[in-house]
Amino acid sequence: MDKILLASVTFLLLQVTATAADLKAITGTWSGNWTPKGGTMDAVTVELRQDEAGKLAGRFVTPARIDFSKVSFNAATQSLSFEATDAKTGKLYKVEAKLKGTELTGTLTINETAGEVRLIKWTFFPH
């Protein structure tokens, strides 16, 4: 029984560590662009962070400065989704993307207009 309990505790600790590492990989500032179907490329910047409760949170910086109303990350599939509604215009912004290293690629939909989005994480390497 003690071996089962020890194995269970070890598994849970490894899960927490993996989750913390995964969240660290996606927190930060991400910038790039999106190209709506039939439209012109536009700049996009988002900030992802952990809130006080340790949950993932964030906001769009451009094209409009608005906090996410929903955000989720699936570490197993490296899938990230978030959305926000601009109170001024009523536009719904929704991103479905996959994380690969320091890049997020997927789809950004603003109301009914969808397009490809590609964001790159800001990194700093001191000299």
Question: How are the elements arranged and paired?
Answer:
Blueprint: H1 2-26, E1 28-36, E2 42-50, E3 56-62, E4 66-67, E5 70-74, E6 79-85, E7 92-100, E8 103-110, E9 113-121
Antiparallel strand pairs: 1-2, 1-9, 2-3, 3-4, 5-6, 6-7, 7-8, 8-9
Describe this structure in words.
The protein has a single domain (2-121), classed as Lipocalin, CATH 2.40.128.120. 20% of the residues lie in helices and 51% in strands. It is built from 1 helix and 9 strands, in the order αβββββββββ. The chain has one helix at residues 2-26; strands spanning 28-36, 42-50, 56-62, 66-67, 70-74, 79-85, 92-100, 103-110, 113-121. A hairpin with a 5-residue loop joins strand 2 and strand 3.
Helix content: 10-25%
CATH superfamily: Quinohemoprotein amine dehydrogenase alpha subunit, domain 2
Report the count of strand segments: 9
Whole-number tally of structural domains = 1
Mean pLDDT: 86
- Run of helices and strands: HEEEEEEEEE
Number of helices: 1
Give the C-alpha Rg: 17 Å
> Termini separation (Å)?
53 Å
How are the strands of the largest sheet arranged? 4-3-2-1-9-8-7-6-5
- Major sheet: 9 strands, antiparallel
The best one-word shape is: globular
